[in-house]
Amino acid sequence: MKAAESLNATFAALADPTRRAILHQLTRGEASVTELAKPFAMSQPAISKHLKVLERAGLISRRRDAQRRPCRLETKPLHDATTWLEAYRRLWEGRYERLDALLENLKAEDAKAGGGTS
């Protein structure tokens, strides 16, 4: 999967609150579908559909353990999404810093001109 497609799949999977809650559960370690379904008022097939979306996005993986297929969290797609978001955070932080500096300059100029009391 290309980087852009992977990022799209990650954000699409994270858009659903149930899938985010499942990922949160998996931060505590591997869990079976039955264990993951417990907190939700939905059927096991419905949870399985959510798991398929998460698996296609690479956010979880499953392995066979006798009759069980425990799920585990995969961190690379989350790391990639965080890296992408971080670039925009830095961009906007820089813009806000420049805006703050501009506002401070305008405020100082206004004070020099005797136009304001702040």
Give the topology, please.
Elements: H1 3-14, H2 17-26, H3 33-37, H4 44-56, E1 60-62, E2 71-73, H5 76-112
Antiparallel strand pairs: 1-2
Helix pairs in contact: 1-4, 1-5
What is this entry, summarized?
The chain has 118 residues and is mainly α.
Helix/sheet category: mainly alpha
| Averaged pLDDT | 91
Distance between the termini: 56 Å
Q: Can you list the strand order of the major beta sheet?
A: 1-2
CATH class term of the domain at 3-74: Mainly Alpha
Low-confidence stretches: none
CATH topology group of the domain at 3-74: Arc Repressor Mutant, subunit A
What is the name of the CATH superfamily of the domain at 3-74? Answer: Winged helix-like DNA-binding domain superfamily/Winged helix DNA-binding domain
Shape: elongated
* Total number of helices: 5
Largest sheet: 2 strands, antiparallel
What report would you give on this structure?
Helices cover 65% and strands 5% of the residues. The mean pLDDT is 91. It contains 5 helices and 2 strands. The relative contact order is 0.12. It has a domain of 72 residues: Arc Repressor Mutant, subunit A, CATH 1.10.10.
Pick out its properties.
single chain, 118 residues, mainly alpha, Arc Repressor Mutant, subunit A, elongated
